[in-house]
Specification:
Two copies of one chain form a homodimer. The first copy, chain A, has 158 residues and is mostly helical. In chain A, 59% of the residues lie in helices and 6% in strands. Chain A has seven helices and two strands. Chain A has a two-stranded antiparallel ribbon with strand order 1-2. In chain A, a hairpin with a 7-residue loop joins strand 1 and strand 2. In chain A, helix 2 crosses helix 6 and helix 3 packs across helix 5. Chain A binds a DNA duplex (30 and 30 nucleotides) through helix 5. Chains A, B: This is Winged helix DNA-binding protein.
Chain lengths: 158, 158
DNA sequence: AAAATAATGCTATGCAATATAACAGTCAAT
DNA sequence: ATTGACTGTTATATTGCATAGCATTATTTT
């Protein structure tokens, strides 16, 4: 029942309790926090954070998409995309165009500069991922991606 | 270059852009957010959220630990643990005891009630994890845990 | 055709998690 | 004996995400 020696506390680095280390949710949170921190650091060179990057990539890949649909895809609140779009637009990365058939909708189209920047961001984020995943084989990375997708239910094709 | 049909936007559920689906960080964030949301919901029955639970589990498993060391283990700020401990203490889940050798340090010990509650929380969170991971075999769960641990560097023993 | 329902983009506001800065008291090291 | 480091703490900032509501426009139901 005693177990731990109680020694000097400031020795740093002790392990997480077993009960937590057994929980996948715990590892998910730690890994995700670590990733988000470093991903944002990597993207600083492009002057964005992960969310604006995701929005721009979505516009680039689905030209003519509406902001509401981006929100559905990225599961974010319509209210929260507003400042993100405002900034991307101010930087000239996409344009809004009125939908001819539905006056509520603005369709978003990437500019040439937007496509360039999206490519640059992809380069930065890919380098970051490579660093993060250096300890895993390609097959393992695929497995990991697949399992994570199953958890939040985007195909995971299993 | 055209690709997507542009159709009605409100059809819901479209897939994330390929560029994002290739990123493990993207899946990490989505999976972690999903987990955190449901874990907190599951823990509502015990009147805690994930962080206070983690703190209590740590005290329970390492009796006599100091708050500073909990912060080092869970990688949280010393400032932020204060209200967490205040609440757990108010609920009678642990006790503070002065360290005989170092007047700066308070050593934290779980009460009987604290151990009970910790057990109860573990039950709730385990049920939640079981639901979350229903689509994965036990071997896959072990693999997932191992890979996540490698990412943020808590053994992962690989 | 009228009325009810719902979607869009948006403002304003809230909350929870995490981060930063500073402090007094205590201990360790030179 | 001074310097530097660590503890627990207060106060405050920042960030990400959530909620509520609004005017406008479309769709659906009656």
């Amino acid at each position: 029942m005693s177990g731990e020696p109680l020694k000097k506390a400031q020795e740093s680095a002790a392990e997480s309790p077993r009960a937590l280390r057994d929980l996948i949710g715990y590892h998910l949170k730690r890994a995700s926090a670590w990733d988000l921190h470093n991903a944002n650091a990597a993207l600083e060179a492009a002057g964005v954070r992960t969310v604006p990057m995701s929005v721009l990539l979505t516009i680039t890949e689905k030209p003519g998409i509406s902001s509401a649909e981006i929100c559905r895809i990225l599961r974010m609140q319509r209210a929260n995309i507003v400042p993100v779009l405002a900034e991307l637009e101010a930087r000239g990365l996409f344009l809004r165009e009125a939908d001819p058939d539905d006056n509520r909708i603005q369709r978003l189209f990437p500019t040439a500069k937007g496509r360039e920047e999206a490519q640059r961001m992809l380069g930065l984020i890919s380098a970051h991922e490579e660093r993060m995943l250096a300890g895993l084989t390609m097959a393992e990375r695929d497995e990991l991606r697949r399992m994570l997708a199953i958890i939040w239910r985007e195909d995971g094709e299993g």
